[in-house]
Amino acid sequence: MVTTLGLLGGGQSAQAKATANRVVTFGQLTNRNPKRLAGIRQAARQQILTQTHAKSRRVPAVYQVKLPHHMTKKATLTPQGLRMNLLANSFKVKRITIPYQQLTGKVLNRYLPKANRTPTTKGKLVALTFDDGPDAKLTPKLLKILKRNHVHATFFEVGNSVSRYPQISRAVLKGGNELGNHSWNHPDFNRIGTAKTVKQVIRTNQALYRATGQLPEYVRPPYGNITAAEGRAIEQPIIRWSVDSRDWAYLNTQKDIKSVLGATRNGSIILMHDIHAPSVAAVPTIIHRLKAKGYHLVTVSQLLNQRALPDLQYFGRGDYRVVGH
After folding, report:
1. Active site annotation includes 131
2. Which residue intervals define the domain NodB homology in the entry (predicted)?
3. pLDDT tens, residue by residue, 11-44
4. What is the set of domains in the chain, with CATH numbers?
5. Which of 21, 23, 223, 227 is at 20 to 30 A from 147, Cα to Cα?
6. Active site includes 311?
């Protein structure tokens, strides 16, 4: 169905404009928002790898490709997606077309087909997130718990563990969950500096791409520590939390349950770890009791309506700020 949007001009829909191969500037696509443009660059990197069938060893090289930073640069809306010309690069690709589903939240809704516009979710939503995996035994056990309870979660994985257990990372995605980057070996980004932080993130992105064929959308910095310069350099949304279970400190199932249930509110992002047996043991009760209170447990992307952008850090639904602030 075609929807009329006067904002597009002439009463034509975004779909109709795209079919006509409409040339637009990045300023138009993003309302001159540099964070949206950073999001488009993020999507472009995945598309370069996908379009060239690149091996994982090429992941670091995709971050060297020169991508648009100026709002006056132009792209084309086509039936297949957003077509961009590229400068000379080591992938020897002159043009990419980013599917519209990869641009939800990054491009203004009026330039997207209706099916790919940012959704508006209502109701009591919370996101369960798990850090520091994958663990050889506990993560598969947790995945079974989530599946049995018809719940999806977001897993922020450490690169050196992903490299050991890539099949578990694949299983996370296969179960309808999502993956995020939690560094290569869990350093404090604030202590290692921007250059080493970027290397940590890219190396983990490479491990996740090797395991799944996808670059992760999000980064969660170890200990929640990240500077403004690091946030700008990473060019991925930063996911923090509003409920800290402190399960690593308790290592006690009943305390984990009490901690989470006592602090969770509508829109919360809950932090737990899938490397501690008491934490995983607490999950069924946490799920059941949150459901009994009317909560729906969703992924981070669903909680944030797929609107997360680079250079911003998100603590919960509607609770975000610039990285480093």
Report:
1. yes
2. 124-298
3. 344 444 445 799 999 999 999 999 999 999 999 9
4. 6-116 (no CATH), 125-322 (3.20.20.370)
5. 223
6. no
